[in-house]
Each structure stands twice: as C-alpha cells, then as structure tokens.
Here is the input.
Amino acid sequence: MKTVLTYGTFDLFHIGHLNMLKRLKEKGERLIVGVSTDEFNALKGKRPIVPFEQRIEIVRSIRYVDEAIPEMTWGQKRTDIAKYDVNVFGIGEDWKGRFDDLEDLVEVFYLPRTSGISTTEMKRVLSEFDERHVESLKNTLDTLSQIVKELS
Here is the structure.
C-alpha cells in the first residue's frame, strides 16, 4: 500500500487546504496528515486563530484523510516516515526545497498553491478587524467546528 504523508497548521481551513489534501490522496492509497500543535506553531513564530484540537478534528473529518496526527517537532518527519511506512512526502510549494533531505527515505514533491487563497492573506484581512469582530469570528468558527464534529 502506498502511503502519503504531509504536514501543516491548517488554520482557517479553506479550499486551498482541501485541494492539497485531495491531490495528495491521489498520490497513494493512504493519506496521513500531521497537524502542527499550538506549541510547535509558537516555536515557528506562528499563532493560529483556531485551536489545535479543533484544527485536527476538522482535518480528521475530511474524507481524503485516513489519519491525522499531532506534529510537535521538525525532526518528527523522519520518525513518522519510518513509523507509518511512508512512501511519499508531499507539501505545498511554499516549502520548496526545504524537505529535499528526506529524499533518501521517500519520494518528495511540492504541490502548487491554489491561486487566490491563502491563510496568510486571510489573517491579514482579519487583522483589520477590531477585537470585538475577531472574538465574534472565533465564536462562529467554534460553532462551525462543532457542527463539523457532529456531522462526522
């Protein structure tokens, strides 16, 4: 069985994330997705809007995903490749070249981004909201996450 592995934060889940997971699933029979924990994101200088437990639950509910696991360190990739018997490592092209060192273990490829959408751009737009609007948006995202959980 061909197993594909990827990682990401998957904050403010959008169509670009879905497209990436769909394309990755087409590369094998099994797709494992590492979702960066809030603590790991802090080490990377990122601050997700949606908490880790909700982000991983959203990823787990996607039909293309066979298993979602927490990503806690940079070095975890090599360990996970061995642990899950991975054949292919794929990630967005914004990381191009960053994981070429894994080619001694697996096939590595970088997927093109979905044009017109990015979490970074969404956060830039959101940053223009005042705190009251951001809190309202977080409550809405919590509600949507709960709906996804109940429907899966």
